[in-house]
Write a structure and sequence with these properties.
transmembrane; CDP-OH_P_trans; mainly alpha; 72% helix; 0% strand; CDP-alcohol phosphatidyltransferase family protein; membrane; globular; Four Helix Bundle (Hemerythrin (Met), subunit A)
Length: 204
């Protein structure tokens, strides 16, 4: 099953001139990572503080796109401009987990969203990333496979937030959509585990 992650190379190509300019200006990958996390916390806090207001939900889609851009930029700064570091790797993984939780968990407070399903989704999203990281323990590469990775979650929740922010009726279809997300997260975790084991090969 296809994932939005598959278009990442094309997205990076669009951002490469900006990334070169940031590197020339002395901006570091770690600074970009921290900025993305801080903005995620601010956006999630706005939704949590004003769950019945529309404006935080309308901000969410644009910020999720910005977050994807910042995530691509920090990776290119690290790989292509000699900024790889152990601290950067830790900030990147921890920042993603913090950002996902900060952005999506407050939706449990928004009218129309089932808080139990949102909590399950946030927990399963963390499990998918743990599965991707745990692949390193088997000798495999970091796994990003699956139909509900970070970029896919951003796209889906951006659309849901936009619909809620515009005041569209959510009742007939929102709960089934959240249920589908849960199923896709489980499939994503399973695929990452299977691909990691396949790449690692049989145990010695």
């Amino acid at each position: 099953m296809a994932s939005i992650y598959d278009i990442k190379p094309a997205f990076q190509n669009l951002l490469r001139p900006l990334t070169r300019g940031l590197a020339a200006a002395g901006v570091t990958a770690n600074q970009v990572t921290v900025l993305a996390t801080a903005l995620s916390l601010a956006t999630g806090t706005a939704i949590a503080l004003f769950p019945a207001a529309r404006w935080p939900l309308l901000v969410m889609p644009g910020f999720l796109f910005l977050r994807m851009a910042l995530n691509a930029i920090d990776g290119m700064l690290a790989r292509e401009h000699g900024q790889k570091s152990r601290l950067g790797a830790l900030l990147n993984e921890c920042g993603d987990a913090i950002s996902d939780t900060a952005l999506y968990l407050p939706l449990a407070l928004v009218p129309g969203f089932d808080p139990r399903l949102i909590a399950i989704i946030v927990a399963l999203a963390l499990v998918t990333e743990i599965a991707g990281l745990a692949a390193l323990l088997t000798g495999s590469s970091r796994r990003y496979d699956g139909p509900m990775g970070k970029s896919d979650r951003a796209f889906v929740f951006g659309c849901l937030s936009l619909a809620a922010g515009l005041g569209l009726p959510l009742a007939p279809w929102l709960t089934p959509v959240l249920g589908i997300i849960i199923v896709l997260l489980i499939l994503t975790t399973a695929r990452r585990i299977r691909r990691a084991l396949g790449e690692a090969g049989p145990p010695s």
